[in-house]
Amino acid sequence: MQDYEKGLDLHGRAIMGEFRSLVPVYQRQKKLVPEFISRSLEEAHVLVTAIESRIKTGESLAGKLALKGSKYASVRDITDIVGARVITFYSDDVDKIAALIQKTFDVDWENSVDKRRQHSLESFGYMSLHYVCRIPAELYSEPEFPELNEIRFEIQMRTALQHVWANMYHDTGYKSGLEVPPEHLRMLNRLAGVLELADDEFSRVRTSINDYRRKVQTLVSDGNFDEVSLSGDSFKSYLALNPFGALTARIAAINQAEVQEVPLVSYLSALRLLGCETIGDVERLRTEYSEKAYRMSVHQIGQTDLDIISSGLALQNLCIVCTVSRGGGTLELEKLFEAIDGPSPYNAARARSTLAFIEKIRK
User: Fold this and answer.
1) What string of H, E and C letters represents the secondary structure of 216-275?
2) DSSP one-letter code for 276
3) Helical H runs in 77-181?
């Protein structure tokens, strides 16, 4: 018998004996439950910040039994010996995760509680959603551990800010609001309000961003280019239409070359440098300078045996001929290459040779 058990009555000690005999089962649950949760979240493409699990220590269990051991007939009536916690980024993800938990495990609704709905004006602190569950036999079973499908465990779902609050609140050593001195209670309530507001705002910002992206995708796919500002999101939607594909195919056909796909998002800075403010501006640049870009490419690779070209060659040459056609010289071309590929000591020489090449083929 451990020292922390000595203050327990006979009933409490009997429950502690049951607890020790079931430790191997608890250990299996501690390992399996987060694995099942992780698999379910991954299949649903739901990202979380952490999945944790723990087994209540003997000392902690003894303390619980000392306070209210009479309410438990056996250790199996204690539903939080094994506990898992899913920590989300956004408050509106808690309900999504809860739905996945319901599909994965058998939920004991009578003992589960949504503490988020217990908030009152006088309360403080963050509440989380608590489910008491079992592992259904059709999900997993082990003949040597039949108790795996019988013993209940708890799953908590909360946001990262709620988790921060809970840890800080626990660190104060207070068990309930009644123990908090009034001046400290006021400070805690203020802080809880700030965190709750931040949680709501993070979710609202994400929703707004997602709505914006959907709107951009619709406008771009419908060809309403002038209504869409040039940004990372809109440029990606535009690239999804493969606007430079036809020019790339023409250039590749010069040598019957293979096209090696590369990301074109890096050209966003170059297009902004060229004065493009909307997707419509990019589309006009593409239309206006495609033929010049093709002729430049003919002189570039037509007399070579090059059999692989980059999918970025078409857009690169579009930007080059646009720069030169607008009167740009070596300095402007150097800035263009820096926008495309980043700073390099070779950009100046590259700009000079490119300009000399263009002037040569013009003759």
Assistant:
1) HHHHHHCCCHHHCECCHHHHHHHHCCCCCHHHHHHHHHHCCCEEECCCCHHHHHHHHHCC
2) -
3) 93-104, 160-172
Pairing of strands 258-260, 106-107: unpaired
What residues contact 272, with CB distance under 8 A and at least 6 apart? 230, 339
221-234: pLDDT as tens digits? 888 999 999 999 99
* Per-residue b or e along 258-295, where b marks 16 or more CB atoms closer than 10 Å to that residue's CB: ebeeeebeebbebbbbbebebbbbbbebbeebbebbbe
For the cut 50, the answer to whether the pLDDT of residue 250 exceeds it is: yes
**What is the spatial distance between Cα 100 and Cα 95, in angstroms, rounded to a whole number?**
9
Q: Residue 332's pLDDT is what? A: 96
pTM (2 decimals)?
0.68
Give the pair of three-digit tokens for residue 134.
């079992």
* Angle subtended at Cα 127 by Cα 121 and Cα 132, rounded to the nearest 5 degrees: 135
Q: Across the strands, what pairs with 278?
A: 229
* Residue recorded with tokens 């104060």: 172
Q: What are phi and psi of 50, to 5 degrees?
A: -165, 150
Give Cβ neighbours of residue 311 (< 8 Å, ≥ 6 apart): 244, 248, 259, 260, 261, 262, 264
Q: What is the DSSP letter of 92?
A: T
- Interhelix angle 347-362/330-341, nearest 10 degrees: 120
Under the banding of pLDDT at 50, 70 and 90, the label for residue 125 is: very low
- The pLDDT tens digits for 17-33 are 999 999 999 999 999 99
Measured distance CA(347)–CA(330) in Å, rounded:
10
Residue 175 in this model has a pLDDT that exceeds 70: no
Q: How far apart are CA 258 and CA 253, in angstroms?
A: 9
Domain ranges of the chain: 3-163, 232-362
**Pairing of β 82-88 and β 153-159:** parallel
Structural fold of domain 3-163: Beta Polymerase; domain 2 (3.30.460)
Count of alpha carbons within 13 angstroms of residue 173, beta-carbon side: 1
DSSP character string of 152-189: -EEEEEEEHHHHHHHHHHHHHT-SSGGGS-HHHHHHHH
282 contacts 230 by C-beta, under 8 angstroms: yes
